[in-house]
Design brief:
It is elongated and about 65 Å long. Helix 1 packs across helix 5. The strands form 2 sheets. The chain has a 6-stranded antiparallel beta barrel with strand order 6-7-8-11-10-9. The chain folds into 2 domains: about 120 residues, Response regulator (Rossmann fold), CATH 3.40.50; about 100 residues, Beta Barrel (Thrombin, subunit H). The chain is α/β, with parallel strands linked by helices and about 230 residues long. Strand 6 and strand 7 form a beta hairpin. It contains 6 helices and 11 strands.
Length: about 230
């Protein structure tokens, strides 16, 4: 059974109450989940422990804001996150883009321009969400390897890059397995080579995909996109 996906998550680093109010109001209309942090050092720390599809940085912090833009894209988990720089004036725009900002807004924020920017950036945020989106499923998985007898397992979630399964057959971390699955609502078998990246009792196994054909990868991405859109629409 599918579970409802969380809304797009946005980190907003700003200590300007007017800027925060305008951004939060507009983002709420687009069902974005906003984490407001007035301390930019604390905001930067949160990026190390939580995943956000977008990061909005107020340039009233000066050099620290510019550094946070750079560091956001240096982090593996936020390498492709949407970064929106809220500038004090347009003269900061070149530095913001050179640092890696995806979009810029200039104070005072105008509702029409803000809405246009968020509409333009939202599909990018959803694509970033899809990269990490894990869809809850309950389907059988046929598992094979060169060193053991084939066995059946049950998949409990799947993403673009991996899958979690439950099985009574023990496996080793680092072991490569060949998986055969049929995604719900489809009829074609998907063949995937995966590596065991973690195990947890009783019988829970985390798998990272290491080989998926281009055609099957595109099919999986399309299927996950449909599931994500369905859950966001609820």
């Amino acid at each position: 059974m599918l579970t409802k996906a969380k809304a797009v998550k946005v980190m907003l680093a700003s200590d300007d109450s007017e800027t925060v109010a305008i951004l939060c109001n507009c983002m709420a209309q687009m069902a974005m989940q906003v984490d407001v942090c007035a301390d930019i050092d604390l905001a930067a720390g949160k990026l190390c422990h939580a995943k956000f599809e977008a990061v909005v940085i107020d340039f009233s912090y000066g050099a620290k804001a510019l550094e946070m833009v750079k560091k956001t894209h240096e982090m593996t988990s936020h390498k492709k996150a949407v970064v929106i720089a809220v500038l004090n004036d347009s003269s900061e725009m070149p530095d913001a883009f050179r640092a890696g900002a995806s979009f810029t807004l200039v104070k005072p924020l105008l509702a029409e321009i803000l809405a246009h920017t968020l509409r333009a950036s939202y599909p990018m945020m959803v694509r970033e969400m899809r990269r990490y989106y894990r869809c809850a499923i309950e389907i059988p998985v046929r598992v094979a390897s060169d060193t053991r007898t084939d066995f059946l397992a049950e998949a409990i979630n799947i993403s673009e890059g991996g899958m979690a399964i439950v099985s009574t057959t023990p496996v080793r971390v680092g072991e490569q397995l060949s998986l055969t699955v049929v995604l719900p609502g489809t009829t074609n078998e998907v063949q995937i080579t995966a590596e065991v990246c973690w195990t947890k009792d009783p019988g829970h196994i985390g798998l990272e995909f290491v080989k998926v054909s281009a055609m099957e990868s595109a099919g999986l991405q399309s299927w996950l996109s449909d599931r994500l859109e369905e859950s966001l629409a609820r």
